[in-house]
Amino acid sequence: MIAVVSGGTKGIGRAISELFLEQGMKVYISSRTKDNNFSHDNLVQFEADLSAKVGVNDFADFIKTKETQVDILVNNVGVFVPGSLMDEEDGMFELQLDTNLASTYHLTRALISEVRKSDNGYIYNICSTASITPYMNGGSYCISKYAQLGFTKVLREELKPEKIRVSAVLPGATMTNSWSGTDLPTDRFIQPSAIAKLIWAAYQLPSNTVMEEILVRPMDGDIT
Prior knowledge:
Strand 5, helix 4 (139-159) and strand 6 (165-171) form a beta-alpha-beta unit. This protein has helices at 11-22, 53-66, 92-116, 139-159, 192-203; strands spanning 2-5, 26-31, 43-47, 72-75, 122-126, 165-171, 213-216. The protein is built from five helices and seven strands. It is α/β, with parallel strands linked by helices.
């Protein structure tokens, strides 16, 4: 089985990639810089900036030179830059929409032919609780994540006749680089491995059943 995970060297993407490898899958991941400490016989890393369409296409073209089908596509790459809409630095809107939304759109379109060749194709888009709940200092990040969830819903409807499952994954505060330097205890956050386990559980459901949205928060609720 073949899996593709964008942004697969850190955080949630890393945890998903590791779990897929444990399950015997061959995994292709993208990142801006390869991680030499992350290696496996079935892991293929590709350097690409997926905030640019050319980077997305380079990644997809590379995969298509190696594989004829893709069983699981995880659109995980993302960026969070805090700030209010009226005060955030110029360019943050474009950066976050390009990374969080456009990469999901373009990579899905680039690999959909390969996903269609799978007997059990599945697409996961890593959204956020910010896709459904606006919050202070969320700025353009919230906009990009709302749009990513909207894209996921449209994609699900379009692919239903082809029996390709599509899930939106909406994690709350998860212990990733976005929270580096926080004074909060680690048990206040979701661990990336928990998100990976939920994704794998969804995949193991019968093929006529889909978790349309996987919403998960820390036990003590959102961090604001």
